[in-house]
Amino acid sequence: MRAVIQRVHEADVTVGGETVGAIERGLLVYLGAARGDEAKDIQYTVDKIAGLRVFANDEGKMSLSVCDVGGAVLVVSQFTLFGDVRRGRRPSFDDAADPADAERLYLQVVDALKGKGLPVQTGVFRAMMDVKSVVDGPVTIQIDSKKLY
Prior knowledge:
Blueprint: E1 2-15, E2 18-23, E3 26-32, H1 39-51, E4 55-56, E5 62-64, E6 72-77, H2 99-115, E7 120-122, E8 130-144
Parallel strand pairs: 3-6, 6-7
Antiparallel strand pairs: 1-2, 1-3, 1-8, 4-5
Helix pairs in contact: 1-2
């Protein structure tokens, strides 16, 4: 499982001109599921997202998590995180989970984040989405559960 996480002042996602998810201060998470992802990948990813200390404390040091600051999370599915461009110019997405598995894994991540008490908004799985954000910092972090083992 891969995630690209941005600390944001605000972010929203629209589908067909209609806003389907929006947050203020928090994390915008682009999430992709890989073939073979399982419960340990979900747990690792969720724990990292919820526990990332990327928000400043009173001294300006990044030591607070989204939970600590009362922030929210906007999760947007993005299989293109598995685009492999080592050969040619057109990305291969062979390492991405098939759509049915990817949606199941995506929803499990969303549910697990909600289970940690976080306000969570989402995009629409497999939809063409417009994502807007005001990135804070900028702070952008990558997580890859396969780097664990």
